[in-house]
């Protein structure tokens, strides 16, 4: 069965080079696109929990084609899931054109018909976007109009939302306006001051056939926002309110939802400070009240905790809890100047980040209304806390080191829905070395450790990435769960791979075992089951 | 400029109209089954659940509301405990293993727990296009839509239970009320009501004396049942009799026999029936 | 395994054959609205370096290789600018989660680039950027002459070489 992958890779490749060589040179001006394919073979491994996949391999792929001519734009996307890689929703099955649009711009007016990606403010009540790696794609299919004049920026849309190869049952409508006061009233003495205010309204319709409850067929949400900047200072605040919207995710309660997001930053060369506060209360908003996870979301509630990227630091990733959370984050960036005590010869970069997220406080009403909640009261349940310290230091001309320490507190029950699991307290340390042999030859190494008494216990991770051959990187890593309480599960997850990069093309081949875990991009996560086998990936744009 | 402001104001007004604020009571006025009809369509609602699944009690409540208050015996409910993460036993309060071989087989085939629990199937409709996995909040509307379809078959169950040998003999008469094409199977199982043991709730709360209703205990004629008809015509009748020894850990007086007829190609159930064991 | 290795070798050869075709090279960058760090809009039509080349870099605060690349360029940016007049425009694809971090991040690193935000991924989509980092070298007419994805230490050299070629091409023409 392992042979299927080479055959498949061959087919993909052959067709791709055929496409690129036959069309590219004669591609009519204005046509461009992107292509990506990811394939994996699966061998069952009961010890790591890799399931027996009957089809033995998975393939996700897409091709985007775009055409631009003056004020006219059009595009399509074709997607392939034969079958979807493990961890993607099985409703991604088969092939088809999932996305097509045409758009025309006339002076300050832009009209799009078909699939579109749009967002109002920070997305508290409306954001559609595409993330291939997450299998997250919720564009509206309908009409989107944008218009701007003298500092007024307006948007309006009506559409249905994509869910896999179909549309969700709801209809979504929305408008948004943003006023850039300095642009609208240029005669006033603004100096460095800049003030932007905005407001939006989104409503969804879904029929009510429920014989038990009176469900609201039209659910509206509105939001107001403000952005003030003054040189190094930037303040942003957005508040959103949503009327009763009983759904699968909120447990069918009728309480209205609200959320507040405030952030402030101050920065000048060599120094940056950022703080944010967020409160979410019952803000699940989907065009199908019966959906969950990453399907048919109308809004986007991002997590405010640091977006971790080192492998072990992503073992316990936080994702926003739309049913309710209250939290704050603060972050400092500082560069010690070269020649100073801490700066040394080349300067030292320091980044400290800390966040603390709790449940909101609820007093339950006992009926379908759900609960009442004091706006600023902090609940007892800890969802997530962390403190991150990162120091970037260039030791000499050839060697650069990034040292990171993280302390995390993580609520598995809330974030992953694991039943009856204790809070995880974890220390994570990472040393990341880059050694340059010459201007283009280098070795990168990561040494990571995670220490915890809960869950699966202690881990170490070692990675080496060798870049000595032009365009080719060789990567080898081992993730070792040496501290698992169950000795049978003290396993190594060894992986090796080759990555080839040339111009806009990237090809990667890997072989090894992968632990199960959450893959998160921008605070949205997908559960990836353990796997064992070959992986192949190609991406390019043309 | 004025034109656009007016245009936007217009949209705003239209949108603000588009809000349905619901005041309590939130429940619909119940319209139960109409008396008089003896031959009615009955729907099978399979609730895939687990004693360690915190959101499952809410789903069970919906199933119970449908079968006990709204549609009464026109909704036949079965609760199947499945998956390792939600239904495996663990020392202490959750030491019972309510999983069954047939339940696990069904879960693997329909890939229910893979999409997270609670989930269910209403007449197994929507397979294999992945539309068969239905979230609990949609069960009521799915059941309502399904009950609007005409009745196509009828099942009569006659049970004889021998307490001495713990043996159950069940006789089933299936009658098709319209011409149907395709191959049809009869599947028979038994469930136990009112099993009291622990159930996990949200926020790690535990109800030690939770009442598990419609708890699936096993198949009487195999995971997929037995073929009873190919392209049956109206008034086609099939008679089947099965004898099984009940599990020793069930209370026979709390048990019910559930039977349903499904199309082999689509797996869609066309009629369901349930009768107490005694 | 041997079979797959063989096929891989063939595929790598195929890529080498195919790469030269698979580029957006020669096209003018699309006209898309981005955000400035103080919340205003700017169109890519307003990108300006007085007819000199531009390096357009897509990055994100959470993307380690992106940050490594921009750090590496920062070390030599002054020399590059002096030598070729090139300007680096760094477009952050950070979304609402980390968008507010961009300004303090950039200042904390002491970067001298022109920074814009693409929170709705409009430019990212328009330029078929499927992952970050991705870098485009633009000539004085803002036509793409080089498109490079991903970063390994030292690969920034390829960008400046491309810029040098452009400059050399210009002078040879004017001569």
Give a short summary of the structure.
The complex is a heterotrimer of chains A (542), B (278) and C (175). Chain A is mainly beta and 542 residues long. Chain A is built from three helices and 31 strands.
Low-pLDDT parts of chain A are 22-26
Largest sheet of chain A: 24 strands, antiparallel, barrel
Largest sheet of chain B: 5 strands, antiparallel
Beginning-to-end CA distance, first to last residue of chain B: 79 Å
What value does the Rg of chain A take, in angstroms?
25 Å
Count of extended strands of chain B: 13
Q: Name the CATH homologous superfamily of the domain at 40-151 and 187-219 and 248-276 in chain B.
A: Glutaredoxin
What is the assembly state of the chains in this entry? heterotrimer
- Helix percentage range of chain B: 10-25%
User: Which pair of chains forms the biggest interface, and how many residues does each contribute?
Assistant: A-C, 98 and 69 residues
Average predicted confidence as pLDDT of chain A: 90
- Net shape of chain B: globular
Number of domains of chain A: 1
Reported CATH architecture of the domain at 40-151 and 187-219 and 248-276 in chain B: 3-Layer(aba) Sandwich
Strand content of chain A: over 45%
CATH class of the domain at 40-151 and 187-219 and 248-276 in chain B reads Alpha Beta
Strand fraction band of chain B? 35-45%
């Amino acid at each position: 069965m392992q042979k299927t992958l080479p055959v498949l890779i061959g087919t993909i490749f052959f067709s791709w080079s055929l496409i690129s060589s036959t069309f590219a040179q004669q591609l009519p001006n204005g046509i461009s696109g992107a292509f990506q394919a990811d394939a994996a073979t699966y061998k069952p491994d009961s010890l790591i929990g890799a399931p027996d996949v009957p089809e033995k391999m998975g393939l996700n792929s897409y091709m985007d084609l775009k055409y631009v001519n003056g004020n006219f734009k059009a595009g399509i996307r074709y997607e392939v899931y034969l079958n979807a890689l493990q961890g993607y929703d099985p409703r991604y099955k088969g092939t088809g054109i999932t996305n097509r649009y045409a758009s025309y711009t006339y002076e300050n007016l832009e009209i799009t018909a078909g699939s579109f990606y749009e967002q109002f403010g920070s997305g508290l009540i409306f954001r559609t976007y595409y993330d291939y790696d997450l299998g997250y794609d919720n564009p509206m299919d309908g009409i989107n109009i944008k218009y701007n004049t003298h500092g007024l920026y307006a948007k309006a849309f009506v559409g249905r939302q994509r869910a896999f190869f179909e549309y969700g049952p709801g209809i979504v409508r929305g408008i948004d306006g943003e006023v850039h006061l300095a642009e609208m009233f240029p005669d006033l003495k603004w100096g460095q001051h800049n003030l932007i205010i905005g407001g939006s309204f989104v409503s969804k319709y879904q029929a009510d056939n429920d014989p038990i409850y009176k469900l609201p067929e039209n659910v509206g949400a509105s939001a107001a926002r403000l952005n003030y900047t003054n040189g190094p200072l930037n303040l942003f605040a957005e508040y959103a309110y949503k009327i009763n919207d009983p759904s699968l995710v909120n447990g069918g309660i009728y309480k209205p939802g609200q959320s507040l997001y405030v952030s402030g930053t101050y920065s000048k060369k060599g120094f940056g400070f950022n703080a944010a506060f967020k409160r979410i209360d019952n803000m699940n908003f989907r065009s199908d009240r019966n959906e969950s996870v990453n399907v048919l979301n109308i809004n986007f509630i991002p997590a405010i905790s640091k977006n971790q990227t080192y492998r072990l630091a992503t073992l316990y990733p936080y994702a926003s809890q739309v049913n309710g959370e209250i939290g704050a984050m603060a972050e400092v960036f500082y560069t010690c100047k070269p020649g100073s005590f801490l700066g040394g010869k080349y300067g030292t970069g320091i980044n400290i980040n800390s966040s603390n997220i709790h449940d909101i406080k609820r007093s339950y009403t006992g009926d379908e209304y759900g609960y009442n909640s004091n706006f600023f009261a902090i609940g007892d349940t800890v969802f997530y806390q962390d403190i991150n310290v990162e120091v970037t230091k260039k030791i000499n001309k050839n060697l650069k080191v990034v040292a990171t320490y993280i302390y995390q507190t993580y609520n598995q029950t809330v974030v992953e829905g694991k039943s009856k699991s204790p809070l995880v307290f974890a220390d994570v340390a990472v040393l990341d070395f880059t050694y340059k042999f010459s201007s283009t030859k280098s070795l990168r190494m990561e040494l990571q450790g995670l220490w915890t008494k809960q869950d699966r216990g202690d881990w170490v991770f070692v990675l080496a990435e060798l870049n000595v051959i032009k365009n080719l990187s060789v990567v080898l890593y081992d993730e070792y769960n040496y501290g698992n309480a169950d000795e049978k599960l003290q396993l190594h997850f060894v992986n090796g791979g080759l990555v080839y990069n040339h111009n806009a093309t990237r090809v990667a081949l890997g072989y090894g075992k992968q632990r199960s875990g959450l893959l998160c991009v921008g605070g949205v996560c997908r559960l990836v089951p353990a796997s064992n086998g070959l992986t192949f990936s190609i991406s390019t744009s043309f | 400029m004025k034109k656009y402001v007016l245009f936007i104001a217009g949209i705003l007004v239209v949108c603000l109209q588009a809000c349905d604020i619901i005041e309590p009571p939130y429940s619909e006025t119940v319209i139960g089954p109409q008396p008089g009809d003896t031959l009615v369509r009955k729907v099978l609602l399979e609730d895939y659940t687990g004693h360690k699944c915190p959101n499952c009690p809410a789903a069970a409540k919906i199933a119970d509301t449908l079968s006990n208050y709204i549609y009464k015996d026109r909704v036949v409910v079965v609760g199947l405990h499945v998956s390792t993460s939600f239904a495996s036993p663990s020392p202490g309060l959750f030491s019972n293993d309510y999983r069954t071989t047939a339940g696990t087989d069904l879960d693997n085939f329909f890939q229910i727990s893979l999409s997270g629990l609670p989930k269910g199937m209403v007449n197994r409709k929507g397979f294999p296009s992945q539309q068969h996995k239905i979230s609990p909040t949609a069960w009521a509307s799915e059941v309502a839509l399904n009950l609007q379809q005409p009745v196509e078959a009828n099942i009569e169950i006659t049970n004889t239970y021998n307490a001495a040998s713990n043996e159950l003999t069940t006789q089933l008469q299936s009658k098709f009320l319209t011409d149907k094409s395709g191959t049809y199977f009869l599947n028979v199982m038994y469930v136990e009501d009112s099993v009291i043991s622990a159930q996990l709730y949200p926020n790690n709360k535990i109800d030690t004396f939770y009442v598990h209703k419609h708890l699936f205990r096993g198949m009487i004629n195999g995971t997929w049942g037995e073929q009873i008809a190919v392209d049956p015509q109206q008034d086609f009748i099939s008679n089947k009799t099965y004898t099984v020894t009940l599990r020793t850990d069930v209370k026979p007086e709390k048990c019910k026999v559930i039977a349903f007829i499904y199309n082999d190609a689509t797996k869609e159930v066309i009629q369901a029936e349930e009768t107490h064991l005694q | 395994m041997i079979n797959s290795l063989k096929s891989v070798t063939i595929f790598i050869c195929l890529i080498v054959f195919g790469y030269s075709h698979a580029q957006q090279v020669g096209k003018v960058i699309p006209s898309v609205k981005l955000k400035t760090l103080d919340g205003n809009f700017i169109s890519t039509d307003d990108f300006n370096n007085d007819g000199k080349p531009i390096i357009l870099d897509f990055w994100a605060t959470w993307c380690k290789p992106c940050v490594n690349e921009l750090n590496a360029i920062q070390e030599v940016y002054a020399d590059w600018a002096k030598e070729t007049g090139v300007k680096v425009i760094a477009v952050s694809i950070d979304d609402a989660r980390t968008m507010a971090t961009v300004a303090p991040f950039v200042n904390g690193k002491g970067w001298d680039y022109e920074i814009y935000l693409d929170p709705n991924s409009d430019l990212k989509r328009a330029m078929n950027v499927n992952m970050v980092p991705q870098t485009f070298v633009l000539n004085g007419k803002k036509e793409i002459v080089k498109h490079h994805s991903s970063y390994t230490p030292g690969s920034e050299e390829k960008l400046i070489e491309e810029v040098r070629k452009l400059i050399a091409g210009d002078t040879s023409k004017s001569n």
